[in-house]
Amino acid sequence: MKVVGRFGSISTRILIILTLAFVLIILLVYWVIETQAKPRILEMTSETVVETGNEAINSIMASINHVDGLAKATSTMAGGLPKQDALYKETFGNLMQQTDQRIVGGGVWFDPNMYAQGRERQSFVWARDESGSMQPLERYNQARQTPNPYYRDWWYIPAMYARHDHCVWSRAYVDPVSNQPMMTCAKALYDSRNQAFDGVVSFNLLLDNLGEAMEKWQDKLGGYVFLVDLDNRFLTFPDQSMVMHATEDSGQGEVVTARQLAESNPSFAPIADSLDSINQTLIDEAVTKDESRYTLAARSILSTTNLNKISEQESRLLSALLLLNIDQTFNLVNSHLVDTIAVPNDFVLQQHATAFVFRMPFTYWKMVIVKPDNDLMSVANALSNKLIQAMLLGFIPILLLTAWVFRRYFTRPLKHMAQSVADMGVLIEQKKYQQLSAHKLPHSNVSEIQIISEQTNQLIDRVVENEGALAEINVHLEKQVAARTQDLQQAMDELKASQVHLVRSEKMATLGQMVAGVAHEVNTPLGYVRSNMELVGDNLIRFDELLQHTDQLLQALKATTINQEQVEQLIEQTLQCCEEIKEDEVSEDLAELIKDGLYGVDQIAELVVSLRDFSRIDESKVKDVDINDCINTSLIMARNNLKTLAVKTNLAELPPIQCNPSQINQVLLNLFNNAAQAMPIDHKGILQISSSVDKAQQHIVVSVKDNGVGIQENTLAKIFEPFFTTKKAGDGTGLGLAITAQIIEQHGGYIEVSSIVGAGTTFTIKLPIQSIVHESKPSLALFES
C-alpha cells in the first residue's frame, strides 16, 4: 500500500480546519459571557425576585389587614354592647352571616365572671356547616363536652397578654370540616366603660386561597414559593402531602414545621436553618427591648394554657411578637427581604438553587422563594443566542472552505468508487465474474481511499480466481434449500391441521360436558313458566265473568224499554264482580305471574346466548370486549358444575380490550371446571373470582382462586405442557391448560399459577389493555388456531 504524505489524510485536513473554527467560536463565546453576561446576571435576577417578593407580601398583607380590621371593629362593638344574650346573638350573628367565605368561624369568648358573676363560661360562637352556612354553636359553654376550657386554649392566652391593637395569629392547623389549612385571629376584648379585659374576639381564616396565590407567584417567578407561620409551620407548599402528618388527635393530619421537614429531607436544612435564625433574631430583639416583660409573658403563656396545647418555643415566639408588635408599622415601600440562602441541591428542584426569605409585619410569617440557579443564567442564555447567530454568520466562509475541501479530496474520489462498486454489483448479479477485472478502483492520493481501493482490488482478484467453484457451490445450495423448504412447508401444513383439530376437539369435549348442565338449568325456569301460565289462565276466567256482566248491562241499556230495576240489578252484579276482582288482587297477581314468566324466559334466553357465545367457532374474530362479560358468561355455562361450590366474585369496572371472546370464554371455563374438580367430596368448596386493573394501568388482571386440594410442586411445573394430566385415563386429554396458556400468549398476556397443597390454587391472568394484534409465533405454534 502506497501512503501519501502526512497531510494526505482527509481526516487530518478536516480536523485541522474544524479545530481552527471551533477555537475561534469558543474564544468568542468566552469573551462575551465573561465581559457582559456574568457581571449582571445575579444582580438583575435578585432585583426582580426581591421586587416580586415584596409585591406578594403586600398582596397577602392586604387580606391579613382586612381580617385584622374586622377583629378590631368586632372587639370595639362587643365591648360597647350591654351584656344580654339576645343582643349578642343577633348583633354578632348578623356580622358572621356577612363575612367572606374564607372566614369559616369565629366568636366572642368572655373571661370567667366577666359576662355575669359566677358564670365561668359564656361564649357566642359561629361556624360554617358542610353547606357553607354560618350556624351558632353552644357546646363551648358546656363543661362536660369541653373539659379543657377555652380560656386556657393556646390562641386565647396570647391575645389576653397582647398590648397592641392588632390580631394575634395562631399557628397553622387543619380545619376538620373542609380538611384545609387555617389560622385563628385572636383580638383582646375590653369593656368600653372601664377598659377592663373582658375576653377575646376570634375569627378562623381558611388558607385555601393562599395556595392558589402562591401558585400564581410561582408561575411568575419560576422555581417554587411557600409560606410558613410564626412557628415555621407550613401554610403552603408545592406538594401539601409532604408537609402533613397524621396524629392521634388529628386524623386528617397536622402541619409540620420547617425543621421537621429538614429532618426527613436533609437538603432542606439550609432553608430551615435560616427560618430558625430569623425566629431567634425575633426573640433576641424582644429580650433586648424588655427582658423582664418578655420572660414573664413567655412563662405565663406556657403555664396558663391547657396541657400540651403549646410548646415552649412557640410561647417564646408569641411573647416576642406581642412585645415587638407595639412598635410595628406596615410600609408598602420598604423591602421585606431578610435573608438570601444558597441551597446546594434542593430536594424539590433536584438541582442547585438560591432561596430568598421575606418576613411579614405583625404576623411574622415568612415567604420563601426558591429559584434554580439555571434560571439565574437566563440573561446569559439570551446573550448566547445572539452570539450563536453572529457565529453562524461568521462560520459561513469556513463552511464554504470545508465544502470545497470535501469535494476536492473526498466527494469526487468516493463518487467514482461508488460507481465502480455499483458496476461490480451488476456484474456479480449477472454472474459475469470474469469481467470484474475491468472495473478495478484507480489510485487515490487520499490515504484512506487508497487503502479501500487496494483492498477492493485484491478482493476482485480472489473472486475472479474462485468464480467457478463458487458458482457450482451456489447452484448446489440453491437446490438443497428449495428441497428443504418444500419439506418444511408440508410438515408445517400437517402440524397446523393437527393443531386446529386438537383445539376444536378439546373445545367440543368441554361443550359436551356443559350441554348436560345447561339442559338441567333450562328445566327449572321452564317448569315455573308453565305453572305461571296455568295460573294466568285461571285468573283470566274472572275477567271473562266481568265481561259477561258488562255485556248483559249493555244489552239492557240498549233495549227499547229500559227496565230500571233490572238495570240496577245488573249494575250491582257488575260492580260486585269488580270489587271481588279488586279484593282478590287478580290484576296484581297477573302482573307478578307475567313478570315471573318473563324472568324465566330471560333465564332460558341467557343460557342459550351463553351457550352460543361459548360454542362459537369463528375464533378469528377480534373485537372490543369487557372481560367481566366473559366471566359472567362462563359462570353461567359452568353453573351445573359449580352448584356445590360457593362462588364469590369481586369484579372491578374495566376498560374494554380487544380480544377473541370465544377463546377467552374457553380459558375461563377450563379454569372454573378445574377448580370444581379440585374439591374433595367432603369439603365445602369456595371459588373466588376477581378482576382489576394493575397499578401501571397497562394490564387487566383476572384471578381464579379455589380452596381445593392444591397442586404438588413437582406437578406444578408441568401443568401447561400438552397432554400432561393427573386424571385417570379417559377423564381428560391433558390439553385444557396447554390451550389456555397458548390462548393467553396469543393475546399478548401471560398466566401465572401458585398453589399450596391442602389450601388451594390461584390462577392469575394478565391481558394488555392496548389493542391486540395476533401474530404468527413459530415457537408457540403447537396450539395456534
UniProtKB/TrEMBL annotation:
<feature type="transmembrane region" description="Helical">
    <location>
        <begin position="12"/>
        <end position="33"/>
    </location>
</feature>
<dbReference type="InterPro" id="IPR004358">
    <property type="entry name" value="Sig_transdc_His_kin-like_C"/>
</dbReference>
<dbReference type="GO" id="GO:0000155">
    <property type="term" value="F:phosphorelay sensor kinase activity"/>
</dbReference>
<feature type="domain" description="Histidine kinase">
    <location>
        <begin position="517"/>
        <end position="771"/>
    </location>
</feature>
<keyword id="KW-0812">Transmembrane</keyword>
<keyword id="KW-0597">Phosphoprotein</keyword>
<keyword id="KW-0472">Membrane</keyword>
<keyword id="KW-1133">Transmembrane helix</keyword>
<dbReference type="InterPro" id="IPR003594">
    <property type="entry name" value="HATPase_dom"/>
</dbReference>
<protein>
    <recommendedName>
        <fullName>histidine kinase</fullName>
        <ecNumber>2.7.13.3</ecNumber>
    </recommendedName>
</protein>
<dbReference type="InterPro" id="IPR036097">
    <property type="entry name" value="HisK_dim/P_sf"/>
</dbReference>
<keyword id="KW-0808">Transferase</keyword>
<feature type="transmembrane region" description="Helical">
    <location>
        <begin position="387"/>
        <end position="406"/>
    </location>
</feature>
<dbReference type="InterPro" id="IPR035979">
    <property type="entry name" value="RBD_domain_sf"/>
</dbReference>
<dbReference type="InterPro" id="IPR036890">
    <property type="entry name" value="HATPase_C_sf"/>
</dbReference>
<dbReference type="InterPro" id="IPR003661">
    <property type="entry name" value="HisK_dim/P_dom"/>
</dbReference>
<dbReference type="GO" id="GO:0003676">
    <property type="term" value="F:nucleic acid binding"/>
</dbReference>
<dbReference type="InterPro" id="IPR005467">
    <property type="entry name" value="His_kinase_dom"/>
</dbReference>
<keyword id="KW-0418">Kinase</keyword>
<dbReference type="Pfam" id="PF02518">
    <property type="entry name" value="HATPase_c"/>
</dbReference>
